[in-house]
Amino acid sequence: MGAGPAGLMAGLLFARAGCSVRVVEKHGDFLHDFRGDTVHPSTMDVLGELGLRERFLERPHQRLSRAELRIGGREMSVGDLSHVRSATPFIAMMPQWDFLDFLREEASRYPGFRLTMGSSVRSLEEAGERIAGARLDSGERIRTRLVLAADGRRSIVRVDELLPVKDLGSPIDVFWFELPKRTQEEGTLRIAVEAGRILVRVDRGEYWQCAFVFPKGQAAALKRAGLPAMVAAIEQTEPRLGTIAGDLRSLDDLHLLEVSLDRLTRWHRPGLLAIGDAAHAMSPMGGIGINLAIQDAVAAANVLAEPLARGRSVDHLLGKVQRRRQRSTQLIQAVQKIAQDRVLAPVLQRRGAYQGVPLPLLLLQRFPALRRVPGRAIAMGIRREQVTSPLAA
Ligand SMILES: Cc1cc2nc3c(=O)[nH]c(=O)nc-3n(C[C@H](O)[C@H](O)[C@H](O)COP(=O)(O)OP(=O)(O)OC[C@H]3O[C@@H](n4cnc5c(N)ncnc54)[C@H](O)[C@@H]3O)c2cc1C
């Protein structure tokens, strides 16, 4: 259920192992809600194990091996990936719809893979304690031995209270919008920090994809303040953009992306397993949500694909997938929580301008080796999964 990164990668791996897979996606295409462009070395290593890395890299993308941060009028590099041990020691910036289309295309090579777009799962069907299938909004009923809930942070397993959620809280939300590129600037990811404001820019060739970060719940107030105030806030945060008044024409161009940080305390029950954001909504910090979703899909297939392909029950194995993935998820969420509460929230609450560079950033500048630590953790994640699920004859 759900054709995001988790659902499509799981669909590919289970079909590759010889299972009959039906992926149901409520949207008619992949061009919905923006959810990140970052494909990390850990994901490209998985593609490499599947023999797909070269085909993936043939698709248009940009390569990012560090981000540029501007704070207090000074610029610096943060997160150095050049020392990561991977055949692809960079982040491939590829619009998510392209990445999803790539996964769809590769999964479609396997006869057991079937994708139904533009159709929602309305409810899951219970047979006693077990989840035995799903009912679509068309009225169609699907009977299955395993429902994989890969339907994101508003998953049906949360809405229908089938599995318990623990909210960790997030102090930020984001406006997402495009601005034309008027200047030549090096660097595919640029972060500008000023007191009370953060602007992140992703180079998409012709234009900047921008994220304006602000305290949670203030979207309506920011919009009420009007377009000129918003334009001024962006220009002051990132003066190198120049004048953007003519580029940002309406407040409707600002799309609100609500950030959450939470996880299920139990990812499964008989007949049902949640993976990806459905199991753990990630903060956009570090751009790791897609990659974690892919790791979950790999772990699920490693444990479950072979017995499922042989027609066996896997109910007793579902807890193994959670145990395999939950420790790294908890650790990454703990780091994200500290970063958002101790770094982002104070920046957004700050009123006085930065007079210099905060000490932790100065240390990163002075000791390049320190820059590699966050770089490696972001690039490779924690407890990287290797594909061990079989390739059916
Ligand atoms: C503002 C923001 C920026 C982010 N930036 C990044 C980034 O740069 N890099 C990164 O790695 N991560 C980023 N993330 C996190 C990342 O988007 C998610 O972690 C990742 O998309 C999770 O993948 P998924 O497959 O689990 O879920 P999703 O990508 O949410 O996919 C779930 C799919 O299920 C479908 N669906 C939902 N309900 C139903 C239903 N009832 N029936 C059928 N289909 C259904 C949805 O339409 C969707 O296609 C960001 C998140 C936010 C909020």
Structure description:
Helix 1 packs parallel to helix 8, helix 8 (289-309) runs antiparallel to helix 9 (318-349) and helix 10 packs across helix 11. This protein has 393 residues and is an alpha+beta fold. The strands form six sheets. The chain has a seven-stranded mixed sheet with strand order 5-4-14-15-16-13-17. It has helices spanning 5-16, 41-49, 53-58, 96-107, 156-159, 219-224, 227-237, 289-309, 318-349, 359-366, 368-380; strands at residues 21-25, 38-39, 62-64, 67-71, 74-78, 91-93, 113-117, 121-127, 130-136, 141-143, 147-149, 165-167, 172-180, 189-194, 197-203, 207-215, 255-258, 262-264, 268-269, 272-274, 280-281. Strand 15 (197-203) and strand 16 form a beta hairpin. The structure holds flavin-adenine dinucleotide.
